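The instructor's notes for this session suggest beginning with a concrete chain rather than abstract definitions. Hand out the sequence below and ask the class to guess, before any prediction is shown, which regions might be ordered.
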Amino acid sequence: MTNSLSVSEPSTQPSSLTSLLRERAELAEALSKRLRTNQLRFYRPYAKQTEFHAAGKSHRERLFKAGNQLGKTKAGAAEVAMHLTGRYSDDWAGYRFDRPVVVLAGSESGELTRDGVQRLLMGPPAQEEEWGTGEIPAEAIVDRTRRQGVPNALDSITVRHISGGYSTVYFKSYDQGRTKWQANTVDLVWFDEEPPEDVYFEGITRTNATGGLVMVTFTPLQGMSAVVARFLLEDSPDRAVVTMTIDDAEHFTPEEREKIVASYPAHEREARTKGIPTLGSGLIFPVIEDEIICEPFEVPKHWPQIGGLDFGYDHPFGAVRLAWDRDNDVVYVTSDYRKREATPIVHAAALKPWGSWLIWAWPHDGLQHDKGSGDQLAKQYGEQGLNMWHERATFEDGTNGVEAGIIAILDRMQTGRWKVFSTCQLWLEERRLYHRKDGKIVKIRDDVISASRYAYMMLRFAKTEPEPRRKRRKAVGGTGGWMG
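After discussion, reveal the predicted structure:
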């Protein structure tokens, strides 16, 4: 009996072990498949992607502009999948539909729609056995129809909603023309990459009856088109813009970021890594942004400083502070401010902390009289405590030409003598959009830029910050007034 047991034991033990290993392999494969076919459950957006999603709760139209391969299309696909299925994450801060939805989604061509939007929603287009490994969970996919004329492209996907009903996403492309984007009513339109103006407005029209959402995810390589201008140059409470740069993409290491940035041609670098529109010859300050940005530092006491104002009410009021390293002849933009529909008392209160001793340069419209009080605009700011220079801003020869100021500032940028603190995001934002159309400067969203030009024109009158205990002659109008 002992011999019998000793003989049979070796034969059953390997069999049990093999069975156990097989079971574990099958479980691992099942788990892997479950993970691969439910990508939406594991979506963890970066900060900028979260900001974009959250904006959908209060804005009907959204623009997510970002560089290449930073996650803009991924964010769009994940949001669409949530709306289609009703499976929102616990910390979802964006808009929620409580019912099945109809979605239009597409890009520039049938091939690009297939390889971008469809791939991220469904899975690899050429591997049908992998369909269901995109953002739409496999178990939620009920049906799909194919698009004619484009290999492996889908025309629509029917998706099971958690309410028990069914959602549908229809795939379109811009090259089909505006009429192909027509449908009775839809709840959401997703444009991946910038659409033509007529296609974009057709998409908006499709959401009018439902009050639905429109979102654009793109890398701005086509310049200042009508659609881009709608978001970047026209203020509206219905529209939101979120910009994601390569520094916001957490899947890249600092070393990888440097290599990626260096791999792009200089004229496309800012668009492909920072989402800054390429305006081509129309850009007034055609310089690489990284070459003018510097980290903030404490301005040395012996550097003269000056402020600049650009008056406005309906269009924003703008202000900047410049510091001048006279030894190296470098001008720094150290502070910026912009606000619309506010009075002089509000603006002055915001600017006085920059320094009660700071001299302020201002443009010719400061001589205009306010219709309500009858006082000159510049005088009103003096009465609120700002040390307004006694004359409007001009160059030393008495001229005040816009082109002369722009050329002088551009020359400084190109020679490393104009720097901007990284905290001056308003100034940098305007620089990215400051452009010409048909040879003329587009006077939209240039308030902070204009203020810096006025300050630069009067740089010769910049003053150093006085010592704290130094006694000063009281200025006219209290702590501020007209400076001579």
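Then share the key points. The longest strand covers residues 330-339. The radius of gyration is 30 Å.
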